[in-house]
Design goal:
Structural class: mainly alpha
Oligomer: single chain
Number of helices: 9
Number of domains: 1
Distance between the termini: 98 Å
Order of helices and strands: HHHHHHHHH
Radius of gyration: 31 Å
Amino acid sequence: MMLANPLDRAAELVALGGPVVALLLAVSVVALAIVLYKLVQYVRLGTGHDGHVDEAIRLWQAGDQAAARSHLAERQTVLAELVAAAMSHAATTGDRTSRADLEDRFAVEAAQQLQRLQSGFRALESIVQVAPLIGLFGTVLGMIEAFRQLQNAGNSVDPSLLAGGIWVALLTTAVGLAVAMPTAVCLSFFESRISSHRLAIEQALTGVFNPVRLVEPAPPAASRDVAATRAAPAHAR
């Protein structure tokens, strides 16, 4: 009985709106399938939850490479695997040119990773754009049919017949918007996750291949005075 009511409502919408509503319901099923797939994918890969990599980068820049790798091994996320691989290659490469080549290589791998994570976005974008247009198309067809019936009625015009035809025609636009709006919200959420993930990748790879060591403590005041005296011109002394 729990499933019968939504199915009955869907059948009623199809009966009122005709093939256009049936098409929009099919589009909504496709959109829902893509959204659920992306949610499961992002949760499984930890997309957008990249804060654990910051601590590993801090340990790496401090020179504690073993602790950095150990910290990444505790989190099975797609970014942690990428950064761990980058650290493994960077640790065995001391030449600056080789490191630049490695950075380019991992930048390509990161771009491929982002492309895989963005799969399905084009379909969602198409649904957001096309669903309202399909609904509007159904409304236009419904209005044409309503005014055709009004013309055939001649002088015996029934206002209720015209009003009924108009609201049924507008139903398709409402269904199209009902499909497009939630899809647009989900797409914006996924895009925000990808933006956060892209920024985390760039920062992590930069931290691995171009480590910034901790600032050395300033020399004592006496040493600074001696260095300044040696650097001063002869006439100043």
